[in-house]
Amino acid sequence: MNLRIAAKSLRLLARTAAPWPVYGVLIRSRLRTPDLRRRFRTRAAAFGSMLREYDVSKDWFTSRLCEWLGVFERHPLPSAPEILEIGSWEGMSALFILTNWPDARLTCVDTWMGGRTTAGTPLAAASEMRFDANMAGHAGRVRKFKGTSLEFFAAEDMRDRFDFVYVDGSHQYEDVLHDAFSGFDALKPGGIMIFDDYLLAPYDGATDCPAAAVNRLLDERRGRYELVDVYWQLVIRKLPAGTPH
Predict the structure, then answer these.
(1) Which helix H or strand E contains 188, and what residues bound it?
(2) First vs last Cα of the chain: how many Å apart?
(3) Closest CA to 237 of 79, 72, 102, 19
(4) Which of 190, 192, 191, 182 has the alpha carbon at shortest distance from 159?
(5) Closest Cα partner for 101 from 35, 164, 169?
(6) What is the pTM of this model?
(7) pLDDT, tens digit (0-9, with 9 covering 90-100), for 64-77
(8) Distance between alpha carbon 95 and the CA centroid of its chain, in Å?
(9) Average pLDDT over every residue of 172-199
(10) Burial category of 25 from C-beta neighbours within 10 Å (exposed 0-12, middle 13-18, buried 19 and up)
């Protein structure tokens, strides 16, 4: 475990009012990471090789793959899972979902206009084209919603609908806050929710970041979830009603 990075992460947690259990789970998860990367190295390499067959400009996902495999080894999804991804970009994480769970049905929500650092760039302009090309082989299993997550959740009742919710859209506080609470409501009891870039540095040097928003969810939904892992991402499992805690 890199002590400098760990110290930086702990300072961010303090600044963004993380609940106390997050600190312990962060340390535990960081200590577990080397073992996960050894155990799942072959599967991660196989996915990386598969990606060469697709149109992907930058790999932002494979470095998280071993931790994902560890999470779902301990908390397997049911057969034919319903999965929601907020923020799909070129479809790299969607490709992993569709290949790792061949019977899954996936809903992808994105504006395909780019975020704070990519809006208006050629990369953003090409992202939707790449996503469509990469999803072409999975017709019938992917629902594409082009728009904001706010529009998506307003369109229909999503309560208790998904077995797995992955939040990787806008990383600004207000947007993550909406995605966190709406995504949690959309998650079935027993389902898994993963927040990407939980430890991203604040845009404003203070609290305009995913951690501040996610920590508010953790505080206000205390007793309704199990904290599974904290590394660069944060993972929770929604507790079934009546679960003792």
Answers:
(1) strand 187-195
(2) 30
(3) 72
(4) 182
(5) 164
(6) 0.95
(7) 999 999 999 999 99
(8) 14
(9) 98
(10) middle
Q: Above pLDDT 70, what percent of the chain? A: 97
Only one residue has tokens 């082009």, namely 146
Find where tokens 């390499």 sit: 45
Calpha distance 91→23 (Å, rounded): 32
Bridging pattern class, strands 234-238 and 187-195: antiparallel
Instruction: Give the pair of three-digit tokens for residue 175.
Output: 């947007």
- 119, amino acid identity: A
Cα 182 to its chain centre, rounded Å, is 14
13: left (phi over 0), alpha (psi -120 to 50) or beta: alpha
Structure tokens of 63?
């470095």
User: How is residue 77 written in tokens?
Assistant: 């999804």
Please compute the mean of the pLDDT values over residues 165-192 and round it to a whole number: 97
Q: How far apart are CA 180 and CA 215, in angstroms?
A: 10
